[in-house]
Backbone:
């Protein structure tokens, strides 16, 4: 079942890659051409062959409609999905229960991370929140392309930002790459106003009684989500495992690492982009 805060989209006419594009994608996905400078050349060729058009491709055992411009996450998933977020995906595969688990994706983007988690789940609840209208439409579309997930999971898609202690509105800065939108003001880029809901409210409305895995990628607004949540959330809703972006920690107004340590979380992996934590 899919529950969406906007009208759920049915999969629209396909965007199947042509033979030359399919060959390029195969080389990029399954050979060293999917790395470094070679991947950039592949991306240019794919764009030239498909100007302005997304592509329907296999992804994590399902399907996805991915855009080759304007969103780094989609570009990486299109050209080299098996090299994308490998450490994070391995962590999730270890900590996400196959049955009856609950996953929350804050900053759902086009749904790439959530599609991977859905591929791990045989039953349970998947909640994804994405505030940008255009990106939320891609998130909906990608789940519409995978009816098998809807048949076995309770999928809740929300067109909203997450954070604060009360529902309201939030201003997002939208840079050139749509996946890098942030509630922290970025000088010289366009802004939009979007609805916002506290993390605890989102889980409560979904009927969640536990949270097995939290993924949070909000370009420096993590503290605006986590501090209000841990101030009020009951222990049973504290996430058992967390994948969290940390490369924008300089934008935090309060220290998320210290907050999580105070709630008995241990960092088990950290690189310059992300960190992964488990609750002891």
Residues:
């Amino acid at each position: 079942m899919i529950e969406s805060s906007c009208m759920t989209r049915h999969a629209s006419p396909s965007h199947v890659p042509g033979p030359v594009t399919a060959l390029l994608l195969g080389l990029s996905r399954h050979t060293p051409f999917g790395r470094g400078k070679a991947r950039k050349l592949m991306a240019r060729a794919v764009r030239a062959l498909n100007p302005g058009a997304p592509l329907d491709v296999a992804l994590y055992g399902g399907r996805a409609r991915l855009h080759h411009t304007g969103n780094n996450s989609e570009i990486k998933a299109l050209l080299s999905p098996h090299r994308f977020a490998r450490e994070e995906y391995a962590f999730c595969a270890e900590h996400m229960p196959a049955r009856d688990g609950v996953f929350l994706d804050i900053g759902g983007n086009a749904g790439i991370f959530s599609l991977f988690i859905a591929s791990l789940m045989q039953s349970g609840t998947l909640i994804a929140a994405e505030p940008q209208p255009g990106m939320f439409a891609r998130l909906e579309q990608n789940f519409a392309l995978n009816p098998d997930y809807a048949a076995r999971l309770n999928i809740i898609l929300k067109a909203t930002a997450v954070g604060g202690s009360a529902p309201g509105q939030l201003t997002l800065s939208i840079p050139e790459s749509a996946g890098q939108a942030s509630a922290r003001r970025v000088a010289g880029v366009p802004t939009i106003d979007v609805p916002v809901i506290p993390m605890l409210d989102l889980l409560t409305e979904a009927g969640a009684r536990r949270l097995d895995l939290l993924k949070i990628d909000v370009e420096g607004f993590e503290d605006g989500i986590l501090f209000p949540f841990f101030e009020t959330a009951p222990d049973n809703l504290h996430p058992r495992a967390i994948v969290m972006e940390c490369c924008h920690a300089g934008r935090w107004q309060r220290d998320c690492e210290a907050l999580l340590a105070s709630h008995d979380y241990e960092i088990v992996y950290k690189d310059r982009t992300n960190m992964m934590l488990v609750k002891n």
